[in-house]
Specification:
Two copies of one chain form a homodimer.
Chain A (H helix, E strand, L loop, with lengths): L3 E4 L45 E7 L37 E4 L8 E4 L5 E2 L4 E10 L2 E7 L8 E2 L2 E3 L6 H13 L3 E12 L5 E10 L10 E8 L11 H16 L5 E7 L11 E8 L1
Parallel strand pairs in A: 2-14, 6-11, 10-13
Antiparallel strand pairs in A: 1-2, 3-4, 4-5, 6-7, 6-9, 7-8, 7-12, 10-11, 13-14
């Protein structure tokens, strides 16, 4: 786990840019100076999208070489978040709020002008399952907006009182009518600028070979890896997750993936030309 | 990654119970029927606490055998959460709320009686760093409540507009005055019943061998693994994280760990006798 490896870096920083697309290996790269590289030569062929850029750091040891794209404490400033709605009233007493920096803090918060309570806004977790069955994966066609009619993994907001694995299992039951057993954590993908969400995806298996669309899905279907509808996926997080999975399957080693999806402000959830995967770390 | 392994299971389900304590191997276990086992015989010796129970599932493949402790879709009911405060007023219009199940949902929500908006409450992420330096780890003594005077990893709530890795880096700067580079994801620990939090911990290294306590810390110190103050840790999540880390170091393989910390209702944050680690999965 110690070595950081820069692959698929941005061309602006001198690294090789890479586009996940049909018939191309996702792992052509150049390493940063001094970093130990890890190379996969096995190609895979997800369909579609020629415009996705991934800026990856593969950490496969417990220490790493310096890496210009690695997250560092110089990046301590929290970036502005595009679509966070301002809180106008206190949830507890109903008093109007004002935005100010509370004592001992560094960030603007909504503070109640009556009772003084601070309203904290934090990112939410979306939890879901990547279900493997007979070398196929289970996808759901969305029957609701956003991304109506596009394909996704069963996933939804984690609720108070449940674990992430329980939430992923519940969402799979609700959206795909499938009883699953969670096998292992597979990916955490943060989307900090748009949506304020973190995707937590688990690998899972069907307890019985039965599934059926719930109210939020119009169709559920098992897809072989070569037939995944990459041109019709609902969200960039799903696009990235499925590409990482195919990549791991083809290279014979399932990893845990961490990364940040940087979306272009104003882009739609399903626009696969408007994001990059940054700070990709493996464990 | 395909085989699920039941280790350190609960005695009530017929598996071996295990207590992490000084001088004992954490990996004594019996396997569930049909599961492929993975055994570590290397002992480690964290101090203190004789009352922590871990119910682990080690998934080291892409499929697993059935496991009675695995998370399944039969567990779809979201458990009641002990300390979630009821929302009385709408944050957007100030109108009073009522608790009801919205159309198309299954869970009680606070709904504004004036504008009709639903107030969703979701778990929050606490992000932090486990910093390795010269075979030691960096801990901070808390200068604030809760757990004033006890030791912890630098960690805090993830903010809107940052990734988990950026948040962990920021918190490390704020609490330990240390500039770090995040190396790899190490653990996700959910605490669903008390606190409504999910801990996301990264392995990290110091960019420079400098650190100093921030306002929330009274002291920062590097500890060798044998000297970690297990009797004076601030939170169960930190206790579990450090035990898992020592376990991995001693066995020579750093994994990504997922698990659920089940706390006994009413127990304090630092009570190491009042929780278990359930559904422990590896990647």
């Amino acid at each position: 786990m110690l070595k950081a490896i820069q692959i698929l870096g941005s061309s602006s920083s001198g690294f090789v840019s890479q586009i996940w697309r049909k018939g191309h290996s996702p792992l052509a790269f150049s390493s940063s100076a001094g970093a130990r590289t890890r190379i996969s030569t096995t190609p895979f062929s997800p369909r579609g999208t020629r415009c996705f850029r991934a800026n990856r750091v593969y950490a496969t040891g417990s220490k790493s070489e310096s890496n210009p794209d690695a997250v560092s404490s110089s990046q301590v400033a929290v970036q502005s978040a595009g679509n966070v709605r301002k809180i106008k009233f206190c949830q507890w007493c109903g008093g109007p709020t004002k935005y100010d920096i509370p004592d001992g803090e560094e960030k603007m918060r909504a503070i109640c002008t009556v009772c003084g309570k601070i309203a904290y806004q934090n990112p939410k977790m979306v939890v879901g399952c990547l279900i493997e069955h007979d070398k196929k994966v289970l996808l759901c066609k969305r029957n609701i907006e956003p991304s109506f009619g596009l394909w996704t993994l069963p996933a939804g907001y984690m609720e108070i009182g449940e674990s992430a694995a329980e939430g992923a299992t519940r969402e799979t039951w609700e959206e795909a009518g499938a009883e699953v057993e969670v096998l292992s954590p597979f990916a955490q993908l943060d989307i900090p600028l748009i949506g304020q969400q973190t995707y937590i995806i688990f690998l899972a298996k069907l307890k019985r070979p039965h599934f059926a669309p719930g109210p939020e899905s119009s169709e559920c279907q098992l897809f072989s890896l070569d037939d995944i509808p990459f041109d019709s996926l609902a969200f960039s997080s799903i696009f990235v997750t499925l590409n990482l999975y195919i990549d791991d399957i083809r290279t014979g080693k399932l990893n845990f993936h961490y990364g940040t999806i940087k979306k272009r402000p104003g882009s739609s959830a399903s626009d696969m030309c408007a994001f990059s995967l940054d700070h990709h770390l493996l464990s």
